[in-house]
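help with this record:
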Amino acid sequence: MKKHNFSAGPSILAPEVIDNTAKAVKDLNGIGLSIMEISHRGKDFQAVIDETVALFKELLNIPQGYHVLFLGGGASMQFCMVPYNLLALKAAYLETGSWAKKAIKEAKLFGSVDVVGSSADNNFNYIPRGYMIPEDADYFHITTNNTIFGTQIKEDIDSPIPLVADMSSDIFSRPVDVSKYGIIYGGAQKNLGPAGVTFVIVREDLLGKVSRQIPTMLDYRTHIEQGSMFNPPPCLPIYVCLETLRWIKNLGGLEKMQQRNEEKAQILYDEIERNNLFEGTAEELSRSLMNVCFVMNPDYKDLEKDFLEFATERNMIGVKGHRSVGGFRASIYNAMPIDSVKALVDAMQEFEKKHA
């Protein structure tokens, strides 16, 4: 029975990505060994990581002077590594949700932090506007998509100082002007691959400017010099990323991916607005294309549990909202097929006929 996987992460992968990875787990390219057992320093895995880096650069049109790294520790490790490597005196942060708050907490260990804008006043249901980026800060950090609250920064900000972005949950969902960023990082487990590998795109000329000593494993220059091979990298998750990037390229690249994502999101947001049982939680201008968050209309609040059971009976998983906010959340990342979105809309309409 087909499951409709709306989980926020680790999340849905394209079927052909799973199928091709399953083949590589048994036998990588006919070499008689599994991707899980080959040496990370052998030519067979070097070919995997080389192609993965090349597709990163091709699909995102990454300019010269940037490096693509594959590390461990998730985005949470990057909350620490970014200020360790870049923060000399002061950094600027935009506070748009739980993950941004965690990044701010880590940065305060290394210097002064200027929170230039926050949407905490309304439970992070919008992206702040009209803030000023201090030109004397070492960098400006943003979280482009907020999975818990369903908001998203959909454009590339013009920043007078190096721009750092946590793109864990919307990387490869749209074209990005990488030249406007100093660092882009994220966990793979939303749009790119399974949990276990973190990508970092870093502009090399930003590094080596802080006076503090940086532990070897936390210094981006270590991983640049060693081609992400300072210690054994997460080989299997990197291979899944490669298959995902091949899938994106075969579909037509990021312009096509953005078109697909906008179409899926519009179908679901239109139903939320039409259906008297439900209400969206994010401000319209800030609504995420990746995580659609909604709640029951207050008049039908007692039906929340019933709808979750109703959706589960129709093979939908992961629709329950984050424990910190409640309600519902449909994560419709790149690999989510439009048929699953339509199935959720059908369920919402059927539930409305039953209860409204």
Notes: The chain has a mean pLDDT of 97. DSSP finds nine helices and 14 strands in the chain. The longest helix spans residues 253-274. Residues 15-251 form a domain with the Aspartate Aminotransferase; domain 2 fold (CATH 3.40.640.10).
